[in-house]
Write a structure and sequence with these properties.
The chain has about 180 residues and is an alpha/beta fold. It is about 35% helix and about 20% strand. The longest helix is centred in the C-terminal third of the chain and has 15 residues.
Length: about 180
């Protein structure tokens, strides 16, 4: 049986809360599907990886010429949105990233290999940035990739669709919510 982990990307106030610094109107549409994925993973005992984007206050960051300062550690925007983040449930971890991919300069691949994970189910924001970068690196590290259509989106819908097309063509599968939940069962 293939071992599967759920990776939830950047489910933080910055993107999902109306007062968040990177909020966009479509962002809340991923909340309910991601919560369904989380519930399915917890019910089955699958590993859940809560990924958060966090940056250090007062220090230069390579992303800053392209993105304004955001998700500063300890602040409202860097906090997980209500219902997300580790909650002392079994089989869940947090990965903090400073770049788009949850795999880049973190121990995520090592951890997943150590747990015998072969397949990942991915949800979160934004499809064309952090979701795609994470999916690409998951593929590059040898994991079977499944991005959940209803559980990802972007403030640039055309780029979100193009990214999903590329995932399906080159990286893995774009699956619906029910299929994703069955993969986590």
């Amino acid at each position: 049986m293939t071992q599967t982990a759920l990776i939830l990307i950047d489910m933080q106030n910055s993107f999902l809360h109306p007062d968040g610094e990177n909020f966009y109107p479509a962002a809340p549409e991923v909340i309910a599907p991601c919560l369904e994925l989380l519930e399915a993973a917890v019910a089955s005992g699958a590993i859940v990886v809560h990924v958060c984007d966090r940056h250090r206050e007062g220090f230069a960051d390579f992303e800053q010429p392209r993105l304004p300062v955001h998700c500063v550690t300890g602040g409202f925007n860097a906090a997980f949105f209500e219902g997300f983040g580790p909650a002392n449930r079994p089989n869940e971890i947090q990965i903090t990233k400073r770049r788009y991919s949850a795999f880049f300069a973190t121990d995520l691949a090592l951890f997943l290999f150590e747990q015998g994970i072969e397949r990942v189910v991915i949800g979160g924001v934004k499809t064309n940035v952090c979701v795609r970068a994470t999916a690409t690196d998951a593929f590059g590290n040898g994991f079977e990739v499944n991005v959940v259509r209803e559980a990802v989106n972007s403030n640039r819908p055309h780029l979100s669709e193009a990214s999903l097309e590329d995932v399906e063509r080159y990286i893995g599968k774009v699956v619906d919510l029910d299929t994703a939940k069955s993969l986590l069962a």
